Each structure stands twice: as C-alpha cells, then as structure tokens.
Amino acid sequence: MVAGDDFSCGITSEGFAYCWGNDTSGRLGNGDHNIENSLIPSAVDTSSVNGSKTFLQLEAGRFHVCGITTDKHVYCWGYDHDGQLGNATPCVDEQKPQPINIANIKGEKTFDMISAGAFHTCGLTTDQVVYCWGNDSKGQLGDNFGIDHQASPVEINSENIVGVKNFIFITCGYDHSCGLTVDHRVYCWGTDIWGSLGNGGNPDFSVNPVAVFVSHLQGD
C-alpha cells in the first residue's frame, strides 16, 4: 500500500496494481482520460508494459506513482511537470505506466528498490547504485547540479562518500533523499532548512550526498 496526496495504490497477492481516489493528471494509471476520481480500486492499465505486467513494489509521490515490475524494470505514471516520471519527456502527464529512460544508466539497468518524494524519484539498481530523477531545485537528486529538473535518471555524485560507495537502501522525503551504504553509513542530499540532512545544518541544502553526523551516537 502507498498513498499520494489524495489517492492510494496497492498490489494484490498476485502482483496486480490497483489505485483509487483522485485521478487528475492520470495518477491512478488506469488509462482513462475522462475519469476525475475512482471511489473503488481501479486496475492499473499495463498495456504499455513490456515483459512482466505484475509488480513487486509501488511508490507514490504527491501526484505520481512509480513501480518495479517482477522482472525489475521501473515504470511511472501521473503528473510529470518536473520530470518525476523519468521517461525523458517532462511536462507530459501519463495516464498509464511508462518505462523510465535507462540510457544514462551505466551498469545494471534493473532495480531492486525505488522511493518517491513530492516531485522526484530515486531508484537503487541491482548493482547497488543510486539514480534519481525529477525536481532538483533543492539538490534532491544528489548529482552535483541542482538545476530545475532531470527528466531521465542521473547517478548521484559519490565523491564525498567514504568507504564503499554502493547502497543497500534509499528513501525520499518531500524534497530531500537519504541512503544507507553497504558499510552502514548514512548519506543525505537535498534541502536542509529544517536539519533534514542530519549534518549539523550547514549548508541550507546540498546538491551532493553529505554524511549524517554520528560521532555523538551511543554504541558502535
């Protein structure tokens, strides 16, 4: 189960995706351009999905959804003003799942995990590399640019990462992101106005991953 701003989605035990609630911008993914909302679960239209049409994971932003199919490919649908669907065509809302653009992905092009912020998305590839796409106005993509948006996945900048640079977990907040490396170090990037990066509050935002401050923590 995942919930966006005014809609929800879930996966059945057989792996089929359903969404319900507000369908503005196609966030229910049912391919119906005429419906405003659905009071009951509506099947996600998988006619544009190549390969497996069942899902392992869904993640919802404010107005968009991304999912990993059982063959580990990422598809997104809904609102796309900031490129959060990752399909290289920003500002084109999608009524049903569309594949992300994998042209910039260097290694494995399949994913083990995804997470969605308000207007951005991040994914963890099967070779443990983090890619993000969508709104980057506060550096939430972590790619050392901090431009308005990226409509295709971009790799986070790992220059500041000490030790193993591969990740085993990622999560996205409204306009920041965090990840856990293989050697259990936490790094965050994006806005830090409220201290959400955990690095002592300097700077106000970071376009690169910064280490969470842990020297005062008890235990190992």
Shape: globular
Percent strand equals 35-45%
The N- to C-terminal Cα distance equals: 34 Å
Into which percent range does the helicity of residues fall? under 10%
Helix/strand structural class: mainly beta
Number of strands: 16
Specify the oligomeric state: single chain
Which helices and strands occur, and which strands form pairs?
Elements lengths: L1 E2 L3 E5 L5 E6 L14 E7 L11 E6 L3 E6 L4 E5 L15 E6 L11 E6 L3 E6 L4 E6 L13 E7 L11 E6 L3 E6 L4 E6 L13 E7 L9
Antiparallel strand pairs: 1-2, 2-3, 3-4, 5-6, 6-7, 7-8, 9-10, 10-11, 11-12, 13-14, 14-15, 15-16
Structure explained in plain terms:
The chain is an all-beta fold and 220 residues long. It has no helices and 16 strands. It has a 4-stranded antiparallel β-sheet, with no helix packed on it. The chain has a 4-stranded antiparallel β-sheet with strand order 5-6-7-8, with no helix packed on it. It is globular, with a radius of gyration of 17 Å. The chain starts with a strand and ends in a 9-residue tail after the last strand.
